[in-house]
């Protein structure tokens, strides 16, 4: 079923990328080739857009038009400039920001957004590459919260961390190697909480840039939590400390 939230055709999609259109995913014909086709693949990779190579039947399920071997799904939201978000935020209110490093599962991503909105997070920041797209699954899993919370993308998450620190916002990250618990961490101040992916956690080079690290106490035999559950526990600890 064709949607107004998609673009088909090699040249139109390429022009959309070059104009800065928010694209969550591009479906490419598995057997596709040619100069313009390869140019679009390169542009999508450079822009950090999620891609999938599928048989022609899948493309014709997305559109009945001449797709030329590619269909792009537009993001349902517009990302905001991080510096503008920070300038519009009153730091005297001790805001909480959430930085996500490599969260690629759309179910976890949507659940995190929902919890972030419920706990009053001021904005969610993602890296251009290696992040789950905001698609229909994310919108549904977030229960629509994705439309209620500012979201920003940066070239590298460290760019956001350095900018936060310049604004006097403490950057703290979840790490199983941390010495102290989240319950022993001061959260009653402007903070940016960094959460890493389930498989590798926060990137080691990113971890080194943070002001502090913490962990959740694990009392059972399993050594880790689902990232959305862990994120919820940490955000509600911030709520508890502030009440």
Uncertain stretches of 5 or more adjacent residues: none
Strand order of the largest sheet: 7-6-5-9-8-10
Shape: elongated
The percentage of residues in β strands lies in 15-25%
Quaternary status of these chains? single chain
Instruction: Give a quick account of the main beta sheet: strands, pairing sense, barrel closure.
Output: 6 strands, parallel
The N- to C-terminal Cα distance equals 48 Å
Radius of gyration: 19 Å
What is the secondary structure topology, with strand pairs?
Layout: E1 6-8, H1 10-18, E2 23-29, H2 35-46, E3 50-54, H3 56-62, E4 70-74, H4 82-87, E5 96-101, H5 106-118, E6 123-127, H6 136-141, E7 151-154, H7 157-166, E8 170-174, E9 191-196, H8 204-207, E10 212-214, H9 227-242
Parallel strand pairs: 2-3, 5-6, 5-9, 6-7, 8-9, 8-10
Antiparallel strand pairs: 1-4, 2-4
Helix pairs in contact: 1-2, 5-9
Short account of what is shown:
The protein has 243 residues and is of the alpha/beta class. It is 34% helix and 20% strand. The protein has a six-stranded parallel β-sheet with strand order 7-6-5-9-8-10, with helices on both faces. The protein has a four-stranded mixed β-sheet with strand order 1-4-2-3.
